[in-house]
Each structure stands twice: as C-alpha cells, then as structure tokens.
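Run folding on both entries below.
>entry_1
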Amino acid sequence: MNRTEKAAVVAELTETFRNNNFVYLADTTGLTANQTNAFRRLLFDQGVEMRMVKNTLLRIAMEDSGKDFGALKDRSMKGQTCVLVSDAQRTPAESLKKFRGASDKPLLKGAWIDNAVFVGDDQLATLVKLKTKEDLVGEIIGLLQSPIKNVIGGLQASGPQKIGGLIKALEER
C-alpha cells in the first residue's frame, strides 16, 4: 500500500468516525476464511459495516476525527483489528454474541458509544444490555406521567361529589 492509498484509507475512516456515534473494534484472529465470511454475512444482514484496517491507520484516523476515544485508542491496537459501525448502538454487540455461540471468537477489543468508552471483551454482555437513548427517554416520560395518571384516575373514579369536596378543601387552605 503506497502513501496515497494510506491517506485515502485514513480519510475514509476519519469521515466514518465523524459521522457515527457507535464504533466497535473486534479481533478476528483465529477465524478461518469460511468463518470470517460467515461473520461478514451476519453483520451485513444486521446492517453493520465491517472493515479490516491496519492499527497504525486506525490510530491516525481516530486522532484526526476530533473525538476522544480515550483508552480504546491506546489499548486496542494489537493484532488484527476490524471496525464495526452501525446506526443502532446494540446491533454490533448482539451480532458478535450471536456469532460466537459457544466459541470465544471474534473478540471484542472495545467500543465507543456516544463518548463512552468500553474496553475489553468482558464488556460485551454490558453492551448487549445497554439501553438506547430512546429507551431511557421513554422510561423517564413514563415515570413522570405515572403520578399524574394516578391522581386523575382517582379523581375520575371518585365521582363528582368527592371532586367538589376536594375543591372546597383546597379553597379553605
């Protein structure tokens, strides 16, 4: 690979990092060609983009992206590295877990999700269970609505006599 080709790869990776908030790094060492192809096929079916990259070019692209990859940039740059990018935060983790089955390959080197850094294969279970921003917002709205629904439900169930009594009690205060 000549200097021009390396610069093109770095520019493409940098743009990928700038445009995505969910970046996973995996190590496919030890997989056969057939297993790697099966893994690629599974990722493609799930909407996950996979790309094998050289660690040096990956490090340069991470630095050029303007994002803080923290420990992921330092600790994950050994062995084969493939970059997994998706629009959904859990999809790459779920795909890794599904493909692995009883095996421990491919290994998760780490993930960068909305400025949060997860380093190491032991983080895979956490990443699979991680709730999306939309899930969390929905839960918060549900919790905020719950007391109001209880009050309104109680007032509606009690009938007009109790509502009138409550209004008089509030006026007296």
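>entry_2
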Amino acid sequence: MIPWLPPAPFFPPVSRALAEPNGLLAAGGDLAPERLLAAYRLGIFPWYTAGEPILWWSPDPRMVLFPAEIKVSRSLRRTLRQGQYQVRLDTAFDDVVAACAGTPRDGQAGTWITAEMQAAYRRLHELGHAHSVETWIDGKLAGGLYGVALGRAFYGESMFTHRSDGSKIALAHLCEHLKRREFGIIDCQMETTHLASLGARPIPRSDFTALLRRIATADFDSPGRWPADAVADAFVKRA
C-alpha cells in the first residue's frame, strides 16, 4: 500500500520505498517549495506523468556522479579545449527547462516535466535553489541542464542537447564549478548506460542518504543565483 501524503511536508522513511517499481515511496501532496526541499534533503524526488497523482521516489541503489569522477572522452576534451562555445549559469533557466521538456527521449512517448513541474522549479529558481547550466554556440542555446542545489549537494533533474556534445559540455563545466565550491555529489537519480558512460555509478541508498545528512544542509552554501560567468575555464587551452 502506497501512503498518501498529508498536507504538511512530511514523508515516510525511505526504507519503506517499494523495490518494484524501483523506489516508489508515496503519492499525493503538492510541489510547494517547502515540500520539494524537504524531499531532496531526504533523498526523495517527484516523478509522474500529467493526469496522475504526484508520485515520490527513492530508488535503491542511487545513481550518483562525484564531480571529480566525470569521464571526459578524447573527442569531448578536444571540443572543450577548442572553446568554440560559451557556458553560462542561470541566464536562461526557463528556456533550459522548456527544452528539457520538449526534447524527445528514446523509449518515452511524452515528458514527465509537466507544466506544473516547470512552474514548481521556476519557483525554486526564483528562491535561489534551482540552477541552470547553459551551453551557447553561435549565440544560440545549444544544450544544458538544470537541477537543485542544497548545501553541497546538487540534484540533477534533466538535460538536453540541440548540438553535438551540448549537454556534455554543460555537465563538464558544472563538475568543475562544483569542485571549486567543494560540492560533494551530483544526484543522477536513476541508473542509465548514458550516465554510466559519463562516470556516474550506483551506490546503496543508505550510503546516499547518509552523505546527504552531512552535506545537504544550509550551513554549507546559501541559496542564491550563481554568477553567470562563474564557470570554470580549466578546459580551454591557453596560448
């Protein structure tokens, strides 16, 4: 039996999540900032389709990327060193979310990034908790990603690409940015071969939630927009 959430931002222990489907914990509630932030701190995230109740998940194992472990292929490293692009932070959050929602996915007929979800994360962005990382090529948005930062944990939500390596460029620069800010982890939620190819790996949920208890606190990093030009330039070849 899946519990229905009360009006207050309360969640059952993640140990009660069902193994099948992978990590379904609860249903109902809302997408208010207080509930979303409470969920992320506990290692829980919303994922559902339009017309369904909000579903809350905490899979075991959990797919994570430690910023220092990102895998950069030779071709991507060459692209990064050529520097024929710009990476900006928090300058086109709505556009990145809309592009993530509108980009077709293999094996998916629609998108889980509903209008309600877009509005919820826009509100988190306004409050300084949600961020976008954007790749710009020839003055156009070529790829990017968005997610939520709490303390020194970054919870990746979605990415898209309209040009070759557009999202990978954004991810590589995000990892450099997070290393500079001493973030400990990027939550990738579900295990996929694509994420594994980029260096992400599954860890037990108990390890993940224990890590969050140490780093996903307000004592580490206050909310607020990231400076647009704060991304690292470590990949650019210097003359």
